[in-house]
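G., before I forget:
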Amino acid sequence: MTQSIPAQPKATSDKADRHQRLLELIEAEDAANGEVGCGRDLGKGLSGYLGTRGVVLDDEQLKNLLREHLGHILMEPDFDSITTQIQRRLESLVMQSVDSSSSSASLLLASTNVTEHIPTKELRELFESQIADCCSEDTLEHLIQWSHQIIHKAVLQPRHTWSKPIWVLRGKTQIYIVQETGIEEAIAKVKTQHSQETEKLEVITVGGILAPDQVISLDTTLL
Amino acid sequence: MSRIIQLLQVQDQQIVDAILTEVTDKHLEDAKTLWEPILAGSGQDDEYWNWVGKSRRSKLLPGDELYAIECEGVTQGLMMLDVLKKRCLIESQLRRRLVYISALATAPWNRPVITNPPTYKGVGGNLVDFAVARSHELGYQGRIGLHALPGALGFYRKLRIGLLNCGPDPEEPDNLVYFETLRIDDP
């Protein structure tokens, strides 16, 4: 894909500013002993396999199918989540199928009694049209069953029914834990209930963004 | 089609110029011939990453972009962005567009755990800053998202670009911690 390189922002065009920013970046790197990586570890073999075979689902086609059948129950964030999970599952299945150390038994489902919110026939047609030439019948069948599970889980707990996120904020001397829709509302609630808190509040972390029952984990050094 | 950035050359503590540019075959070749032999058996999280494969795959998917940092003619860092398919997850900016960093890695000789002292510092930070700049250019208000590798949490916490730790992602097979830029002032 062709794209342009963004111009350097004015704020950093000054040499001194750029050096200062470099020092900040180095400080951040040093805090992690030079570890800066991000992204999924696809495991030995899979990344190359995907690179050559191109096992990729078309998000939009899958979302259209979901909208058609579940548009009255679920919303776009649910469709985002479902398609992401199905794509990831596909990658994991392909990895298992190309990894000779994996037993074919591992492809079997733990449970096969899952409500079909979308007819299996339609899911199969969609998957077959995109990935059948690079997946075994076992893999395809597993993906279909797994998709039913993912969709069913989303139907049971649609995103719009989740509780408000929990924000962990740090003031000069206090840590505040607030349940609110957004950060501005969370800060406002702290200021209302703790009028002595006049300093700027820093967001340490937030829970309940990625899952409705997410546990918040805080490094003790942050407290 | 490229921009000059600065790195710290650790050996003599000099700030040197480097180039951040779109990935070319030369960069991918460096990753294969120079990086992979060092990473093999290192136990690093990206030990099995295949940047040639990522590049091929990016050509199949709309919105995938690859960039490299080059210094002294050698590839010092690589990054893959998804500028189209990912959306914000934080409630107050839910489904707004962002630039998602699909993969980011520095050359093995820039990692103290492999080569101490490292050759250059600042590679990873410059790549992340570029992702933010790309987000601004696309009209995404600088929002980015990423799943940090376990050893890099401290780095993303300290970058000073407004990245919010959203905790381990249960939808990720490895439960990697998800970070997203939180923009408070935007409408």
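Residues 76-98 of chain A form the longest helix (23 residues). The radius of gyration of chain A is 23 Å.

More on Monday.
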